[in-house]
Amino acid sequence: MHFFNHLLHDHDLALILLAAAICAAGCYVGVGLSQRAASERGTARWHWCFLTGIVAGCTIWATHFIAMFGYRSPVPVSLDGVLTLLSAHIAVVGSCAAVAVATLSRRLWASATSGLLFGLTIAAMHYTGMSGYVFAGAEVRWDYGLVVVSIALGTALAAAANFRLSGSDGTKVDIGSVALWVAAIVALHFTGMASMTIAPLAGTVVTDATYSGVGGNALAGAIATISLMIVGLGLTTSQTDRRQQLRSRLRLQHQAMHDALTGLPNRRAFGRALAKRSAAAEATGAAFALLVVDLDNFKPVNDGMGHATGDEVLKRVAHRLECAARPGDFVARVGGDEFAILLDGVRDSSAAGSVADRVIEILGRPFLIGEQIAEIGACVGISLAPHHATNPSRLVNHADHALYSSKRRGKGRWQVFDDTLLEAIERRRVLEAALRRAAVREDFDVVYQPIVDSSTDELVGAEALARWSPATHGAVPPAEFIPMAEELGLIGRIGMTVLRKACREAMSWPDSIKLSVNLSPVQILDPRLVSGVAAVLHETGLPPQRLELEITETALLGDDELALRTLNRLVALGVNVSLDDFGTGYSSLSYLHRFPISRIKIDGSFVNQAPVDANSASIVRAIAELGKSMDLQITAEGIETAAQREFITSHGCQNLQGFLISRPLSEAEFSDLCRAAGQERAA
Amino acid sequence: MTERFDLTDQPGAPLLRLFYTSSAIARLGARELALACEKRNREAGITGVLLRVDATYLQVIEGAPKAVAETFERICCDLRHRNLALLEIEPADERIFGDWSMAHVGDSESLTIALRDDLEDIRLLAGVNAHNTVLRMRQLLDAVRARDLEVRNCAA
Ligand SMILES: Cc1cc2nc3c(=O)[nH]c(=O)nc-3n(C[C@H](O)[C@H](O)[C@H](O)COP(=O)(O)O)c2cc1C
């Protein structure tokens, strides 16, 4: 009890409380700063260590000195300036070192060493400071046992504080460590004070303690103020920094979850939103719809009009999607030109479909950028939770399948997932594999549709048509496998197979019979086409004049310079070029002038309606007249009735083709027909 | 029904004129729409005309290219009409509708038979010759203005 009596008896309570308050505030700030220092790297860390060291050092020093002013010395006291200053330096430098060591590692050695350093710093500061007190007319006696105890206590508590700190995550100031720091400082100070006895020498008048020079209270006030300012500085620094960190953390969080270009939630944010809703759908049956939106035609816009324009389009797409979605719907950008929308509370296809309609409508409108117009469009795939699934990745898969099938049906469509889609997709997958095999094995048949002269009825030629009947599926119509071959990049190969086969077989027909073979638009853009055709002619020996290559208008739409060059080189080989399906597409007369075309084939759809439908009739008449004026041959396709035949013939089409004349024939049948025709002519 | 205001374009500053049609999906008339965006158009230096013929809107907007692009984007974000078809966009030297921040004709307006026929003609012409249609729209506005003047004179 000697200790506490001593404490209470020898000290001025008000100043002791002030010292304690400064100590607590300083330790709070110091701990916060040291946590901050530990979270930094490189030079920034040393700056934070330095700041922490200054705050901690000042705290120790100020606590000590203010407490000392609260100490009632039995004799007058004066301060040795050098030693007092030295003690301040020791406090700051030692604290800096201790903090720096603590930030080196989270291991035990670092916190132990740092604790030791910190404890020794407090002790060194304390005893150096104490030796700067000159007690006039008194002898200072030390209890070395207690001195050792004080150093041991301070060091142990400091080490404990640093050990705690090394385990904290730095998000909040660790109050336990603050308490331990305070405890280390306080314990060392008061144990140190207890170890000291002031024995007045005989003859000294015992008065109240007085400091020579400046008044004690004023000095205490000055030290306290400056220390508080330093502690305050540390506090403001760490608070400002914390706020900034919070702000930058929020910004980072925003950046991590949002697409920088459009500002929409990104793929990751979408994943979370979907997972959350899926879980709710699973748990409570809460319905929602997933729409995946894929832009049509974005790539050509981006490539053709520049990436800046492409970016602007994407930004506007994002905004338009938000306009098309209902308030509160979740719109995200999940890929380059792919977006997704989550519709809460949507249970059936029709509600989801009406949003999809709006999306397609709004994205189908032009984008006026600068003075350029970008036209894109969109397809939408839809899946419904919990109806189709409640598993996020299955929902996405289903919506993707629906999207795939809507894209297949054309631009500006939407489609809700259903199980038959999977079958269709599976069929397509199998067919694609079969088509690849067939392309390698040249597994295609060629049939021939006879073409006759409209005035003499004489057989003048045949159009070669590709047929494909994979063993697993039976005959697959050309309308299905040709686009597939184009997409898979097989059309060049298949086209050449058909051409070679047809040319070879045509060699057995009379010389007067011409052969027409179709070229896909994709083939026209293939630089190997001309040499391929030349090679086939050479190989089979078919005179080029007997070969006619049929192209469609779409082939001339894309890169028409390239198309023009290719067609000119084909014509230079001696073959003829005809324009197929005329009247259905863009039918610009300028094609007929620019491209080396020697025949037009009027599309069957006009021929079908011609005799009864005035509009079709006038188109047929116009085309026939055009042919006459431009010296082009005209073939009418799809003749099915005698009336059509009569109408077409009377309007001056030279050649006829269609079921009325003959269905497509196998090679053997066609050869027979040629023979019969020959005999007829001979007869 | 029309509002005059002063609009001074910098001489030589490029202008853009745009003409589109769309189908109305609501009873929303040309009058309500034009009044609603008049203030905004005036601030953006946009002039033009909006007609509603049955369920078809026909609108011309003209102004500085940037303002036209922004206004058109707003119009494209509006789902109160469908089947929007941009019929013409062309640089212009001067305004055709410089007197109107957004003139409007159509719907419930008490129109003479002649004006009604004009409206119908304009709608049919739009798909065939966009440029002439724009000129016809200006003539229509002049005719309406003349009629209004007459009505006022008669009343006086
Ligand atoms: C037929 C039609 C014509 C429009 N004309 C204009 C117009 O001249 N100027 C304009 O700023 N907005 C026009 N709008 C767009 C709407 O008024 C648009 O919804 C509104 O400007 C959006 O305002 P907010 O951004 O304050 O919602 C038109 C919309 C429609 C359907």
TrEMBL record, chain A:
Keywords for this protein: Membrane, Transmembrane, Transmembrane helix
All residue ranges annotated as the GGDEF domain in the record: 286-419
EAL domain residues: 428-678
Gene3D superfamilies given in the database record: 3.30.70.270, EAL domain
Domain of life, per lineage: Bacteria
Keyword Oxidoreductase: no
Domain MHYT: 11-199
Membrane-spanning segments: 13-34, 46-71, 83-104, 116-136, 142-163, 175-198, 218-237
Alphabetized CDD domains for the sequence: EAL (cd01948), GGDEF (cd01949)
Name this protein carries in UniProt: Bifunctional diguanylate cyclase/phosphodiesterase
Provenance organism: Blastomonas marina
From TrEMBL, chain B:
Pfam family, one: BLUF
Domain called BLUF: residue spans: 15-103
SMART domains reported in the protein's UniProt record: BLUF
Protein name: BLUF domain-containing protein
